[in-house]
From TrEMBL:
<keyword id="KW-0732">Signal</keyword>
<dbReference type="InterPro" id="IPR017777">
    <property type="entry name" value="ABC_urea-bd_UrtA"/>
</dbReference>
<dbReference type="InterPro" id="IPR028082">
    <property type="entry name" value="Peripla_BP_I"/>
</dbReference>
<feature type="signal peptide">
    <location>
        <begin position="1"/>
        <end position="30"/>
    </location>
</feature>
<dbReference type="Pfam" id="PF13433">
    <property type="entry name" value="Peripla_BP_5"/>
</dbReference>
<dbReference type="InterPro" id="IPR006311">
    <property type="entry name" value="TAT_signal"/>
</dbReference>
<protein>
    <submittedName>
        <fullName>Amino acid/amide ABC transporter substrate-binding protein (HAAT family)</fullName>
    </submittedName>
</protein>
């Protein structure tokens, strides 16, 4: 069958018109939305903690869109799964920035994932909002840290353990997952404890890999260490799904909070979902928010999340909706970014960074959250909660108000003279 030049031209013209017709709505749609990236592990060892952050980010985006979006445009989420694979976080970050053209990214949990993506955001001058407590010792103009620095969680928690109300602990087990956050946090805590007169012989450190599941010998070692006379406490920086076997073994060996209290920095309501918490009553967690915090803003936040989780059929949450600290930090971060974009009247990175300085937001935790004008960290209150039989936390101690973050800990000698202002690169 022969095709004449005229027939071919007509066909090509028709095809071109068809492609153009198909393309116009796509271009129009792209122009009418602002894309934001969601970079969380939805599979692998960290999915137990991170999946719900993806969901609360989507809820927050829906909430912002229901009020008209930003700059007259709806926010469009782009979700990727780096699958608890640290190098893959960097690849997915590049994809979000280069291919998907997102205006900002909300994501990461572990510090190793944040360290993996940091060069990407700095090189491409893009924005990351990081919603989890971390070890400090970092300050980037391209990152806003909406979780806690060590002086907003780790230091107050150990001070509490040493106080009369916290049990007057004199010996410490620093137990963590083997990566940068636990090791650096424990370096800070060792120096802090030394400054408080605690000898090296009264501190032990233990580390386990991601996904570790057998805590029998470690719990036995803790019991032996605690039996040697002085009041002992455990500081846990275990991350991810390893928390489930750790707490189960704690219950199995009958290590009660009255004997050896455990204070956790990465265990909240979500991580305790799969654990029988009755044997764990009285053990502690230090955060900047708990679901049980009583405030009108928190009542509204929990209600919104409960309705959203049920409507979307979110696994686990449609029957038992839970909120936690990194969820609150994600919620605050997204709202503050939207406010900064509105103030800057653009999604341009440098202009949004300038507009983020001093942003405020009524946090579910019952305080007005403020983004520091210089160091890209939130001013946050500190809460210490005891595990209750129902997996919730009873707040037993809190600061009088928000605490200003100190990213460069005074307990690390090399930090002397370092400025709390991100360097321009």
């Amino acid at each position: 069958m022969q095709t004449t030049r005229r027939t071919f031209a007509k066909t090509l013209s028709a095809v071109s018109l068809g492609v153009a017709a198909l393309s116009l709505p796509l271009f129009a749609q792209a122009a009418d939305t602002i894309k934001v990236g969601i970079l969380h592990s939805l599979s692998g060892t960290m999915a137990i903690s991170e999946t719900v952050l993806k969901d609360v980010a989507l809820m927050t985006i829906d909430e912002i869109n229901a009020k008209g979006g930003v700059l007259g445009k709806k926010l469009e989420p782009v979700i990727v799964d780096p699958a608890s694979n640290w190098p893959l976080f960097a690849e997915k970050a590049k994809q979000l920035i280069d291919q998907d053209k997102v205006a900002a990214v909300f994501g990461c949990w572990t510090s190793v994932s944040r360290k993996s993506v940091l060069p990407v955001f700095e090189e491409k001058n893009s924005l990351l909002f990081y919603p989890v407590q971390y070890e400090g010792e970092e300050l980037s103009k391209n990152v806003f840290y909406t979780g806690a620095a060590p002086n907003q969680q780790a230091i107050p928690a150990v001070e509490y353990l040493m106080s009369k109300d916290g049990g007057s602990a004199k010996r410490f087990v620093l137990l963590g997952t083997d990566y940068v956050y636990p090791r650096t946090t424990n370096k800070i805590l060792r120096a802090f404890l030394k400054a408080k007169g605690i000898p090296e012989s009264d501190i032990i450190e233990e580390y386990t890999p991601f996904g570790h599941a057998d805590y029998q010998s470690i719990i036995a070692k803790i019991k032996k260490f605690a039996s040697e006379g002085k009041k002992t406490a455990v500081v846990s920086t275990i991350n991810g799904d390893s928390n489930v076997p750790f707490y189960k073994e704690l219950g199995n060996q009958g290590l009660k909070a009255t004997d050896v209290p455990v204070v956790a920095f990465s265990v909240g309501e979500e991580e305790l979902r799969g654990v029988d918490t009755k044997p764990l009553v009285g053990h502690l967690a230090a955060w900047n928010y708990f679901m049980s915090v009583k405030s009108p803003a928190n009542t509204e936040f929990v209600k919104k999340w409960s309705e959203y989780a049920k409507a979307k059929g979110i696994a686990g949450h449609k029957d038992k909706p839970l909120t936690n600290d990194p969820m609150e930090a994600t919620y605050i971060g997204l709202h503050m970014w939207a406010q900064a974009v509105a103030k800057a009247k653009t999604t341009d990175t440098d202009k949004v960074i300038a507009a983020m300085a001093g942003q405020t937001f009524q946090a579910p935790g019952g305080f007005v959250s403020t983004m520091d004008k210089e160091n890209h960290h939130l001013h946050k209150p500190v809460f210490i909660g005891e595990v209750k039989a129902d997996g919730q936390f009873n707040v037993v101690w809190k600061t009088k108000g928000p605490v200003q973050a100190d990213p460069w800990s005074d307990f690390i000698a090399e930090n002397k003279g370092k400025k709390n202002v991100p360097e321009k690169k």
